[in-house]
Amino acid sequence: MAQPLMPHATASWLVDNTSLTFEQIAEFCGLHILEVQAIADDTAATKLTGRDPIRAGELNQDEIDRGQADSEYRLRILKEPDQTRRTKGPRYTPVSKRQDKPDGIAWIIRNHPEISDGQIGKLIGTTRTTIAAIRDRSHWNIANIQPKDPVTLGLCSQRELDALVAKAAKAAGIEPAAQDHRLAGDREALIEELRRERDTAAREAEAAHAAEEAGVSAPREPTADDLFKS
Questions:
Q1: Taking a C-beta distance cutoff of 8 angstroms, is the pair 48, 9 a contact?
Q2: Domain boundary among 175, 202, 221
Q3: Beta-carbon neighbour count of residue 227 at 10 Å?
Q4: What is the pLDDT of residue 48?
Q5: Whole-angstrom Cα distance, residue 145 to residue 33?
Q6: Is the pLDDT assigned to residue 174 strictly greater than 60?
Q7: pTM for the full predicted model
Q8: Taking residues 180-200, what's their average pLDDT?
């Protein structure tokens, strides 16, 4: 069954503005009933701004009235959300990884000078201005930029990087170096481990920040005195 474009926000609006049951709202929005309960009780992790499904053309008042009159009635969406198609442009990079882009760009510039700025921009998802600033060392944060493998940073895949290097080398007339695949498995394992460590550190930092904002201090590690006291 088709679902609203913003199910949680739509559920919030239906909870506040209708007498539909939680089961009806949950089924229409494709949510678990406990999620709807949390929205109704204001215990959801994120405070939501309601989205009017009538204005969005996903419901009309007649459909809502039918649901309010019969708790067994299942609401039907009137218009499915339009599929969002990404237009041409720089490669999308998650917000958490955007700060790593300069390091990945610097690594490519240092290790593969045959790759053009346009190719780097498509691979990493950045602009020619940023690449030029790193190349001529006029970038505002150049003192803190450290060349790092963009694959390890999660900015691209190894296959994408290898394909780009081969294409650029061919265009520049450079004989490709023989690749040693003996440690390929170890390399992938190391990359995966580094990514896990990075994600864990990010989650811990976010949790600490959230606890600090909530006025809750992080648990203190027990000292030797604490152990002897117990």
A1: yes
A2: 175
A3: 8
A4: 72
A5: 48
A6: yes
A7: 0.43
A8: 68
Q: Is residue 109 part of a domain?
A: yes
The whole-angstrom separation of Cα 171 and Cα 165 is 10
Ramachandran area for residue 145 (φ above 0: left; ψ -120 to 50: alpha; else beta)? beta
Please check whether residue 105 is in contact with residue 120, taking contact to mean a CB–CB distance below 8 angstroms.
yes
Residue 179 phi/psi, 5-degree rounding, is: -95, 135
Residue 157 to residue 177: CA distance in whole angstroms = 19
Q: Looking up tokens 């648990």, which residue turns up? A: 219
Cα–Cα distance, 29 to 122 (Å, whole number): 37
Q: What is the mean pLDDT of residues 163-187?
A: 70
Residues 44 and 114 in one domain: no
Of 173 and 93, more confident = 173
Task: Pick the last residue of a domain from 139, 157, 175.
Answer: 175
List, as own/partner pairs, every contact residues 53-57 make where C-beta atoms lie below 8 angstroms and the sequence separation is at least 24, other chains included.
53/4, 53/10, 53/13, 53/14, 56/4, 56/5, 56/10
How many residues would you count in the chain? 230
In a domain, 162, yes or no: yes
Domain tally, the chain: 2
Compute how many other C-beta atoms are within 10 angstroms of the C-beta atom of residue 151: 20
pLDDT exceeds cutoff 70 at 199: yes
* DSSP 3-state of 221: coil
The pLDDT score that the predictor gives to residue 45 is 55
Domain coverage including residue 162: 95-175
Residue 216: predicted pLDDT: 52
